[in-house]
TrEMBL record:
It comes from Pristis pectinata (smalltooth sawfish). The gene is COX2. It catalyses: 4 Fe(II)-[cytochrome c] + O2 + 8 H(+)(in) = 4 Fe(III)-[cytochrome c] + 2 H2O + 4 H(+)(out). GO terms for biological process: ATP synthesis coupled electron transport. Residues 92-225 form the Cytochrome oxidase subunit II copper A binding domain. Its main location: mitochondrion. Residues 1-91 form the Cytochrome oxidase subunit II transmembrane region profile domain. This is Cytochrome c oxidase subunit 2. It is found in: Mitochondrion inner membrane. Component of the cytochrome c oxidase, the last enzyme in the mitochondrial electron transport chain which drives oxidative phosphorylation. The respiratory chain contains 3 multisubunit complexes succinate dehydrogenase (complex II, CII), ubiquinol-cytochrome c oxidoreductase (cytochrome b-c1 complex, complex III, CIII) and cytochrome c oxidase (complex IV, CIV), that cooperate to transfer electrons derived from NADH and succinate to molecular oxygen, creating an electrochemical gradient over the inner membrane that drives transmembrane transport and the ATP synthase. The chain crosses the membrane at residues 27-51, 63-85. Binds a copper A center.
Length: 230
């Protein structure tokens, strides 16, 4: 969960998000080193009155400043491609959930169960219980088992939406008439918050996403209660 004046990312709750955080730190260090070198060169060029005639026309320097940036780009591209393939990999998901975006709420369908579906609306401020988060809590949470591969099928009924949960490293557009797919595994139990990340109308800010990860036994108990209510 993000907090005021936070500078970094939220704590990773999935293996993919951990990889994304490592890649972010790796790339940021490269950017920092390049920025420091460029700043040093600028300061040196402005402050010194000396001129080296070998720097003004040097084949060796031109070779170096052509090859070194290419190597740096490769060092960034290879980890990035690896993470892209990891995010697209779907291996035998335990549960498939369909998220359907509406103006302005989400609907969830557990396709492995019969008649297990519900709408998820934001809880109004005046109805919040103590300790709940304003504009982020919903009346029905998407409950899933922890440490299980989850496949999400995401689409929309009316306009463009985007199903995004930062702690899980998941962000997928919900497009009317198109079924997008993503997957994730939650490493530990907890409640993870997200919001629609595509401007979708007047109440775009009021369609939060709440994912609750629980042990498998608790999930089975929850699904049994939901099916009994139906």
């Amino acid at each position: 969960m993000a907090h005021p004046s936070q500078l970094g990312f939220q704590d990773a709750a999935s293996p993919v998000m951990e990889e994304l955080l490592h890649f972010h730190d790796h790339t940021l260090m490269i950017v920092f080193l390049i920025s420091s070198l460029v700043l040093y060169i600028i300061v040196a060029m402005v402050s010194t009155k000396l001129t080296n005639k070998y720097i003004l026309d040097s084949q060796e320097i031109e070779i170096v400043w052509t090859i070194v940036p290419a190597i740096i780009l490769i060092m960034i591209a290879l980890p990035s491609l690896r993470i892209l393939y990891l995010m697209d990999e779907i291996n035998d998901p335990h549960i498939t959930i369909k998220a359907l975006g509406h103006q302005w709420y989400w609907s969830y369908e557990y396709t492995d169960y019969q008649n297990l579906e519900f709408d998820s609306y934001m809880i109004q401020t005046e109805d919040l219980n103590p300790g709940l988060f304003r504009l982020l809590e919903t009346d029905h949470r998407m409950v899933i088992p922890m440490q299980s591969p989850i496949r999400m099928l995401i689409t929309a009924e009316d306009v463009l939406h985007s199903w995004a949960v930062p702690a899980l490293g998941v962000k997928m557009d919900a497009v009317p008439g198109r079924l997008n797919q993503t997957t994730f595994v939650i490493s530990r139990p907890g409640v993870y918050y997200g919001q629609c990340s595509e401007i979708c109308g007047a109440n775009h800010s009021f369609m939060p996403i709440v994912v609750e990860a629980v042990p498998l036994q608790h999930f089975e108990n929850w699904s049994s209660l939901m099916l009994e209510e139906v």
